[in-house]
Write a structure and sequence with these properties.
The chain is α+β, with helices and mostly antiparallel strands. The chain has a domain at 174-217. The chain contains 6 helices and 10 strands; from the N terminus they run H-E-E-E-H-H-H-E-E-H-H-E-E-E-E-E. The chain has helices at 4-19, 64-79, 87-96, 100-109, 128-133, 137-149, and strands spanning 28-34, 38-45, 50-56, 116-118, 123-125, 164-171, 176-178, 196-201, 204-209, 212-217. The strands form 3 sheets. A 5-stranded mixed sheet has the order 1-3-2-6-7, with helices on one face. A hairpin with a 4-residue loop joins strand 6 and strand 7. Helix 1 crosses helix 2 (64-79), helix 2 packs across helix 4 and helix 4 (100-109) runs parallel beside helix 6 (137-149). The longest helix is centred in the first third of the chain and has 16 residues, at 4-19. It is globular, with a radius of gyration of 17 Å. Bound molecules: zinc ion. The site of zinc ion has 6 residues, from helix 2, helix 3 and strand 6. Residues 73, 77, 87, 90, 166, 168 line the site of zinc ion.
Length: 219
Amino acid sequence: MGNRSNRDILEIISSLVKYAYLELESKRFITKVAKIKSYACISWEHNHDVVRITCNEIVNGWHEAALIGLLSHELSHPASMKMGYREESTDLDVINRGLGPYLALERIITNKYSDHVIKSGRDKYLGYKSIRKLLDAQELIQLDRLLSELRLTAKESTPTLDLVHDYHVMKTNDEFVTNSDMISQYQENQVENSELKFVIRDNTTHIYLDEVLVGKFSE
Ligand SMILES: [Zn+2]
């Protein structure tokens, strides 16, 4: 499949921006498909135009509808900044924009039938069951149609523990704001449009910014 997915990702992002995330219209998206420790990661700099999204190569095998769900969640990170950086409020933002059916589908693919609690109960990813409860009649029909099209049955499942759902990193002039506890306190002025990289070695994720190691963590 190779690069097909990367082009798909950019196409999906531009449709999503056009129909649901107009406030991101001025952004330039740089996407990549790579071997990373999460399904996706997104990074952006406050007041800058570039947003980088990396998807795990696993999405090569996903149905487009699930990829729409994952990318909606990523776009909701910069779009819903005012609501904080919690995964739960990010999920709610996706649902409020009418993309809940795709998010629900993504949660089946990523084994989150029930809510996936993180940060010792301080945050969570909404599971399929919770998302379903928040959909309106029309969206439920849409979701059920997608499920039968993809021949998917929603059933209780265990979250895949070797894969974190996603990381987001927002960089301002003097700090990083991220859901990875490791680098949130890192303070240093960096040049514009710096590149963020997640590299996995010996079960540890190393975070590089412009080739400089800024943090590492193992889950
Ligand atoms: Zn997230």
